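Form 7-S
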Amino acid sequence: MLGVDIIEISRIHHAIETFGDAFLGKIFTKSERDYCESSTKKFERYAVRFAAKEAVAKVIKQGPRPFWQDIEIINDQNGAPIVVLSERLKNIFPHTIETSLSHCKDYAVAVAMVRQ
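Output:
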């Protein structure tokens, strides 16, 4: 199973500027926010995590649509992205999901795939 998503970084930038903590708190976990805020490229980091959450949701096709906080994108010790599912989602979808993230000046893209 494969999921992909692409988003304009400007859309996430606008949402953060317009809705601030209400938007960030709804979509991103504390760990994700801490990671994104630690960079001068925070909007790119937020956008690519948003795309990753969408890509993961496309992989999880069974059961109820995941909530934003059910999917967390963190980095391992080498900086590679890791998908962490909430306990609720693990019970519905007990597979490991891998992701790849990329962004440029205008766009962020993510691919998610179930590891068999």
